[in-house]
């Protein structure tokens, strides 16, 4: 009778304990359409202030941000009502962007310029704030821009291709066909000369297929 008992005991000893793997909750996000995402990284606060993970390749990939980012950019806009728009680069330097605000507040805007897309010509937008920590993911194939809603706004964004001057293109910020409400006074908007001269969407020959 002792033989079978010893065998059972050995088998039990050979069985490794099962450890439950608890998956962390998915990164909070909202699909705005066309692949554009509004992302809400978590903030953990205590008496010192807060900590936030603003990018983690595995967690961002899990919600669809699979691009490899190769350059980080940062801009400062002094005046309320500054508009930087609508910009993109052509392949092979087409850029996906992951945008957030370090100081102040913006209306972030993406326009689908992929001719074969079901959302071609549609506008997707979201307010991004330094206090809230929101991010907007803009896939390649979109024209992108933002307007500042507070003075001294600082915007930071990752891009999936390096800057290439020869690949730069743009769409007019106030194209009537797009009807973008930039939430700024059009008579006092701050723009550079280049952004004032971009063609309308219907006149821009260099788009995406």
> Can you summarize the main beta sheet?
6 strands, antiparallel
- Tell me the number of strands: 13
Strand order of the largest sheet: 1-2-10-7-12-5
* Averaged pLDDT: 92
Percent strand:
35-45%
Return the structural class.
mainly beta
Low-confidence stretches: 4-11
Topology pattern, helix = H, strand = E: HEEEEHEEEEEEEEEH
- Cα-based radius of gyration, to the nearest Å: 24 Å
**Count of helical regions:** 3
Polypeptide structure, described:
There is one protein chain. The protein is mainly β and 209 residues long. The chain has helices at 2-14, 57-62, 193-196; strands at residues 29-33, 36-39, 43-46, 49-52, 71-77, 83-89, 97-103, 105-112, 123-129, 135-138, 142-148, 153-159, 168-170. It contains three helices and 13 strands, in the order αββββαβββββββββα. Strand 1 and strand 2 (36-39) form a beta hairpin. The longest helix is centred in the first third of the chain and has 13 residues, at 2-14.
Describe how the helices and strands are arranged.
Layout: H1 2-14, E1 29-33, E2 36-39, E3 43-46, E4 49-52, H2 57-62, E5 71-77, E6 83-89, E7 97-103, E8 105-112, E9 123-129, E10 135-138, E11 142-148, E12 153-159, E13 168-170, H3 193-196
Antiparallel strand pairs: 1-2, 2-10, 3-4, 5-12, 6-11, 6-13, 7-10, 7-12, 8-9, 8-11
Short characterization:
By secondary structure, the chain is mostly beta strands. The protein has three helices and 13 strands; from the N terminus they run αββββαβββββββββα. It is 11% helix and 35% strand.
């Amino acid at each position: 009778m002792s033989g079978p008992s010893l065998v059972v005991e050995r088998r039990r000893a050979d069985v490794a304990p099962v450890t439950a793997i608890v998956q962390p909750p998915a990164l909070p996000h909202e699909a705005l359409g066309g692949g554009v995402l509004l992302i809400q990284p978590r903030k953990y606060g205590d008496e010192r202030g807060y900590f936030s993970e603003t990018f983690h390749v595995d967690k961002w990939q899990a919600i669809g941000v699979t691009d490899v980012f190769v350059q980080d950019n940062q801009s400062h806009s002094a005046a309320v009502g500054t508009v930087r728009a609508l910009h993109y680069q052509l392949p092979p330097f087409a850029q996906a962007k992951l945008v957030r605000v370090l100081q102040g507040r913006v209306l972030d805007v993406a326009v689908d310029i992929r001719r074969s897309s079901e959302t071609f010509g549609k506008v997707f937008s979201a307010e991004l704030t330094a206090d809230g920590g929101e991010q907007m993911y803009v896939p390649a194939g979109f024209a992108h821009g933002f307007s500042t809603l507070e003075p001294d706004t600082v915007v930071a964004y990752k891009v999936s291709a390096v800057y290439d001057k020869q690949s730069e293109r743009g769409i007019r910020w106030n194209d009537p066909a797009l009807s973008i409400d930039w939430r700024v006074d059009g008579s006092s908007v701050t723009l550079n000369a280049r952004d004032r001269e971009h063609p309308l969407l219907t006149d821009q020959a260099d788009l995406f297929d």
